[in-house]
Structures are given as structure tokens and as C-alpha cells.
Specification:
Number of strands: 13
Helix content: 25-40%
Largest sheet: 5 strands, antiparallel
Strand content: 15-25%
Mean pLDDT: 91
């Protein structure tokens, strides 16, 4: 990891929790204490089970958060990009990270320590209130995902994953702007690499998606959405 200066005042991520609260006088001291650094692609910066050091905010880049499942296989539980928060699972209630996190590309992160985050929560009510709403929304999403996965077949889970990635990261030149391996798609969809390859091959034959190298482009998002409509 390389130390890098990422300044909050010049940040363009309007969805970042810190950025949203920069107008508050109490926040000025805290942004001067933060640490920022860059991770190379595939580099891990949160180890599951390690002592919690604080919260991370993505200044620029993409990150996957994972949790170890049965037989030690990592399940991708979240994909994040510029402005998103990483490491919040277990913060304030656990002494250790409940997830691991890897950079999906060269990524610059802002790191606020435990001590500073707890001070902010005690001293900045508006921030604390918004964080509470964020946790409530994330819990609702997690519960909905559990319900969906239980009801969907493999094809539907892969389609749901592709639609989520498409919505989250968008497409440039007809392909999703995220370089995920078939294994990573499987880890997110809760299935196997082989099943993902078969579903992607089938969707290509049906001309619902296309591939350019490892990247995938959604050709008919409306038709894909119809396949999983009953689960939404």
C-alpha cells in the first residue's frame, strides 16, 4: 500500500458520508486527521477477523468485500465504488472485521481511525443520524438478498448479479465497466464457476448479452429484468 494524499475538500464524491457532512463546523478537525493510501489491483486491505482499525471511504476505485463461507470459500457480499463506505459491518459492535476487502483495480482509500469515528458519532448528531439510516437500508438490502437467493434458480441468480453490476457500475462502449472473473461472478451469485460459464454461454446464444474478452455487456436489459421480475 502506498500513502497518497486524497483531500476531502476537492473530493467529487457527493455520495460519500464524509463529503456530505463537510459543511458542518465540527467535521473540520476530523478530516485533517484521516490517512489516505492507494492499493494495487487484487491487493487486500481488510483481513476478515483482524482487529477493527476504523472505516474506509473509497476516494477513487472499486472494491469487493468478502466473507468466508463453507469449506473456506469466499463469498462476495458487496461491490463498491467511488464514495462508498467499506468496513462498516461489525463497526461499533465487534472488535474484529466481519469481512475482508480487496481492490478490484488500483484504488485510493480514505481511512478514519476507530477513535476519530467514535468521536464523530458522539459529537456530530447529523452524521450519526445519517449513518443509522444507512445501516437500516443495508440491513433491508441484506434481508431482501437472502430471500431472493433462496427463491431463485441458478440462471436467475446469475442474471440478477449481472443486472446489479450493470446498474452499479454502468457500461462504456457496450460493456460493463468492471473487470470481474467468472469465479468472482459465481462468488457473488452464490453458485459455481462452471454454472456461471454455462449461463453466460446460454445468454450469449440468446443474444441477451455479449462478451469482449472477460468483460460482459448487457444487450437487452429489459428482457433480462423480465426473467427475474417475480422476485423483485
Amino acid at each position: 500500500m502506498k500513502e497518497e494524499l486524497a483531500t476531502c475538500n476537492s473530493c467529487i464524491n457527493e455520495n460519500c458520508f464524509i463529503k456530505k457532512h463537510l459543511h458542518l463546523e465540527q467535521m473540520k478537525n476530523y478530516i485533517n486527521r484521516k490517512r489516505s493510501f492507494t492499493c494495487k489491483k487484487a491487493q487486500q486491505f481488510i483481513i476478515e477477523g483482524a482487529p477493527i482499525q476504523g472505516l474506509y471511504f473509497i476516494y477513487k476505485g472499486k472494491v469487493k468485500t468478502v466473507k468466508t463461507g463453507i469449506n473456506g470459500r469466499e463469498q462476495i457480499v458487496r461491490l463498491t465504488k467511488d464514495g462508498d463506505t467499506v468496513g462498516f459491518r461489525g463497526f461499533g459492535t465487534s472488535k474484529r472485521y466481519l469481512i475482508g476487502a480487496y481492490a478490484l483495480e488500483d484504488t485510493t482509500l480514505c481511512d478514519f481511525s476507530n477513535e476519530d469515528m467514535l468521536e464523530i458519532l458522539h459529537n456530530v448528531p447529523e452524521f450519526t443520524f445519517d449513518l443509522m439510516l444507512f445501516y437500516a437500508e443495508e440491513l433491508n438490502k441484506s434481508e431482501n438478498n437472502i430471500r431472493k437467493i433462496a427463491q431463485m434458480n441458478v440462471r436467475e441468480r446469475v442474471i440478477d448479479t449481472l443486472l446489479y453490476i450493470h446498474k452499479k457500475f454502468g457500461q462504456i462502449n457496450g460493456v460493463i465497466e468492471l473487470d470481474l472473473s467468472r469465479k468472482e461472478i459465481a462468488d457473488f451469485a452464490g453458485t459455481t464457476d462452471e454454472q456461471v460459464i454455462r449461463v453466460i454461454s446460454s445468454l450469449k446464444k440468446e443474444m441477451l448479452i455479449k462478451t469482449v474478452g472477460k468483460k460482459i455487456g448487457l444487450v437487452h436489459t429489459d428482457k433480462l429484468k423480465l426473467e427475474i421480475k417475480e422476485h423483485k
